[in-house]
Amino acid sequence: MKLFSDEYFMKEAFKEAEKAFEKNEIPIGAVIVNNNQIIAKSHNLTETLNDVTAHAEMQAFTSATNYLGGKYLNECTLYVTLEPCIMCGGASYWTQLSKLVYGASDKNRGFSSLNKNILHPKTEIISGILEMECSKLLSDFFKLRRKAN
Description:
Elements: H1 6-22, E1 29-34, E2 37-43, H2 46-49, H3 56-68, E3 76-82, H4 86-95, E4 99-104, E5 124-127, H5 131-148
Parallel strand pairs: 3-4, 4-5
Antiparallel strand pairs: 1-2, 1-3
Helix pairs in contact: 1-5
């Protein structure tokens, strides 16, 4: 595996998902990369912030645009462990994201469930990177949650 591969950056997003797991947040992690440098890292914070919009991607968008000093991420790649939901997909449209790479698919709530692409037309999409690991972390989380209830 070359140093700055999609797998390398997805492993960084996975580390963020593990942080979410430890906080009893749905374990989704995201990183945003510009010129092979991570400029934003985040994970779900919906429970911590009591905010339904505090998804990993939304947190990463805010952090990355603050870092760059502008609202567009047209030279950036978002790595996220789960396919973005419709809200996050729509937000990525407005950021003009260059590339989206995600791990596990979300057949029920993912942006692709709309049967049309809501992402920016110039956004390249790659799916299935570390899919098994990302899916397992999510299923382990929900198994633990069901046991607790």
